[in-house]
Design brief:
This protein is an alpha+beta fold and 95 residues long. The protein has 1 helix and 5 strands, in the order βββαββ.
Length: 95
C-alpha cells in the first residue's frame, strides 16, 4: 500500500490514512488499545464513527477524483505484553 494522506480532516470527519492498494483506494481507520474489558479495538468503529469516515472520504474524493474501487479498512492494534496488529480489509460498506 502506498500512503497518500495521513490524518485527512474534513468538516464532520477524519480519516487516519488514505492509501492506494493497487487499483483500490483505501480509507483506513486505526484503533489502538490494551486488550481487555472494552473489547477488541476494531469493535470501537461504531456506526457513528463509520458515518464520519464516509463523510471525510467523500470530501477527499471531491478534491481528489478517483475512478477505481474504494474500500474502508480498519487496522486494530492491541498493546499488552506484546503488540498484535490486525488489518481488516473492506471492514464495512457505506450505508
Amino acid at each position: 500500500m502506498k500512503v497518500l494522506a495521513r490524518n485527512f480532516r474534513a468538516r464532520g470527519g477524519e480519516v487516519d490514512i488514505v492509501a492506494r492498494d493497487g487499483d483500490v483506494l483505501a480509507f483506513v481507520e486505526v484503533k489502538t488499545g490494551r486488550s481487555g474489558a472494552f473489547g477488541p479495538p476494531e469493535s470501537w468503529v461504531t456506526l457513528r464513527k463509520r458515518e464520519h469516515l464516509v463523510r471525510a472520504a467523500r470530501v477527499y474524493l471531491a478534491k481528489n477524483p478517483w475512478d477505481g474501487e474504494v474500500r474502508f479498512d480498519v487496522v486494530a492494534v492491541e498493546v499488552g505484553e506484546g503488540i498484535r496488529i490486525r488489518h481488516i480489509k473492506d471492514a464495512f460498506r457505506p450505508e
